Amino acid sequence: MYCGKCGSKIDDDSLFCPVCGSEIKISGNSDNHENQQPKKNNCKKYLLIGIFLIVIIVVGVLYATVGLNTKKEKQITKIERADIPEFNQQKAQAVHKWNRCGIVDISGKKAVISDLQKIGNNIDKFNEYSNCIKELQDNKENYKLDEESYAKYVKALNQCQKAITDKKAQDTFDKYNKVETARTTLINADNKYIKDRVSMYQAIDMANAESSEKKAYKENLEKINNLVAAKDKNYKAIKKAFSKMDQTVYMYIDPENVLDISIQQVDASDFPKVKLYLNIQDENTGNVPSGLDDTSFYVLKKDATANYVKQKVKAISQLNEQEALKVDMVADVSGSMSGTPLSEAQMCMANFVNSMQFDAGDQVELTSFATGVRLEQEFTGDASSLIDEINDLVTGDMTSLYDALYTAVERVATQSGARCVIAFTDGNDNYSDCSVTDVVNVANRYHVPVFIIGIGSVDTTDLYTITNQTGGEYYNINAVNSMQEIYEKIYRMEKQLYMVEFEDGTGADINDQSDIKTGYKSVKYGGECNYTYTPNVLLSAGSATLYKDGPEAVVEEYLKNFDDAVNHSDFSLISNCLQKGSPIYTEQEKYVQRDISEQLDSYELTDVSYSDENNCVISTRETYYVQVSGEALQLMTQECKYSLVKENGNWFMTSFVDINVVSRIKQ
Asked: Where are its TM segments located (predicted)?
């Protein structure tokens, strides 16, 4: 047996342990003595097993926690890189839940990982939709057949694109679904459009057509039928085939409704590209049709052989929300407008300014008139600046209406795109140097419509003459506060114009007279008008140089530098344009030394006439602000003719052939 104290082996009959001396207590069962040490060893074994199991569990928990933490960090990095506010907010909530989980809360952490993965999936979805919208935007023109459905589709695309740009995920998902719906609707509408269009082509009577037209018609129709019959429709190819067919058959289409079409304005500032601004109304209802098909517009221009040739149409649009309108507002501040009338007029003008589409590029200039004409605010798209100037208007004495209209037309004519003059007056002109004829001539020269609002008992004869002969309209009201409605009516009317841009392919010069026919032909609508015009491009002093070489470039350089030469008494600024020793060289060398200030406002080269390859005469129309010492500031328009000669490959101005002062307007 063994000692119970030190564990040493002793004889069974020993009373004391020979090692430690402890008394040996004998139990009744000798087997217990034999098994005492093994029991102790078993306890140690179980303890070791328990410790081992605990270590395994702890290691397992730590391993699981580290793995989950890695997954969490990976998802968080993905979310942070996407930098989408609502996903960042969801991430913050998930991280908060994670931090509340205990170290052994594996299931809680797995739930957080699941939430983060859902956010990651939505990021993938957001990126996928972003790529899809970009592709749809790039290819949207291919589906531009049914105009109404196409406009709704483009609107849905733009709204979704804005949500993507703003990084609004849920809004993007919602808007994308609307894009899909709009696209499906558009495709269905396009298919109906195609079906109707093919039926129209098949019904056209080509009996009186030329043999070449009949052949082209047959070939085009066969190609269209093949494209339409294809299982996967190529809308872009179908649209192109329709356009080609239209060029063949447009003159043989009988429309259901007749359109009244007239040209209000012409903008040739980017010649040979020319913009026509068309008034288009249904002849029966007087309404302006919307959503007209771009491919159904056409322009014919008479060439050198007096034949009308179809021109290439580059762009079609309706002004509203798409094309800019430039307006010169002309305000009567004569003595009779003093007090309440001026206050009411200021309110109406301010409200009108606030209603304009400055985001679409609209610009306004403010001109006032009384004893003279005053430019209050140059063309701007800043509503607050305009309203400040409107509120600062003060009254004078006399009424220089015609001078103000002439000035406003000259000013707005230098602007590109659609433009007009809107004036109001409560009295008859009694102080202008310009006449009614002067106003009409300059407005027609530059294709600028003039609208006039007469207040009270105004002599309307001359005002009707100006508006009717310039493509504008006259309105008479009894009270100043009624102007608001008229302003809005004029603005709506101008914004309903259709812009048709074509490229002149006849080889004509910018100063040549043009005879054109333009119109619209489809099954539903049709109409045409004839128009004769000379481009007459009036350029502002600050505009880009139009002429790159030749005698025109020399005259343009001279005009652009002349006022600086005068104001700084620096003849060298223009001397390189003049032939040394010539009459104009001698005259202008003296002129720039005078006590005078000039500022070029606008200019136009109206004609170039060659006597031979080395000699020509260039005609111009020039407008200056002129300040002579001791006299009032004037806006002077003059028509000049300059003689030029070519020496050693270079052109030089030699003399004035003629100078005619067209107008002098007191400022």
From this structure: 46-66
Half-sphere exposure of 465 (CA within 13 A, CB side): 12
Express each pLDDT in 32-48 by its tens digit. Answer: 444 455 555 566 666 66
Cα angle: 319, vertex 321, 323; to 5 degrees: 40
Reply yes or no on whether the pLDDT at 653 is more than 90. Answer: yes
Nearest Cα to Cα of residue 18 among 29, 6, 30? 6
Edge-to-edge strand ranges of the sheet holding 539-540: 539-540, 596-612, 615-628, 634-647, 650-666
Identify any residues that bridge with 616 across adjacent strands, giving them in sequence order: 610, 644
Angle at the Cα of 462 (from 458 to 465), degrees rounded to 5? 130
Helical H runs in 428-478?
A: 436-445, 461-470
d(CA 282, CA 527): 9
Kind plus residue range of the DSSP H or E element containing 632: none
Please provide the size of the chain in residues: 667
User: In terms of Cα–Cα distance, which of 586, 584, 560, 587 is closest to 643?
Assistant: 584
For residue 26, the 8-state DSSP code is P
The H-or-E segment that residue 207 falls in is none
**The two three-digit tokens of residue 629, written as one number:** 């010492």
Radius of gyration, alpha carbons of the chain: 43
Nearest to 559 by CA among 535, 536, 581, 542: 542
Read off the tokens for 539.
Answer: 């350029």
pLDDT at 4 over 80: no
Confidence bin at 387 (pLDDT 50/70/90): very high
- Predicted confidence at residue 244, as pLDDT, reads 85
User: Residues with Cβ < 8 Å from 214, sequence gap 6 or more?
Assistant: 206
Long-range contacts for 530-537 (Cβ within 8 Å, ≥24 apart)? 531/263, 531/266, 531/276, 533/263, 533/266, 533/447, 535/266, 535/268, 535/271, 535/274, 535/510, 535/511, 536/268, 536/445, 536/446, 536/447, 536/604, 536/606, 537/268, 537/269, 537/271, 537/510, 537/604
Greatest extent of the chain over all pairs of C-alpha atoms, in Å: 157
Please say if the pLDDT value at position 565 is more than 60.
Answer: yes
Strand-pair partners of 259: 282
Average pLDDT along the chain: 87
In this prediction, residue 33 carries a pLDDT of 47
pTM reported for the whole predicted model: 0.65
Round to whole Å and give the CA distance between 666 and 373: 6
CA distance 30 to 13: 11
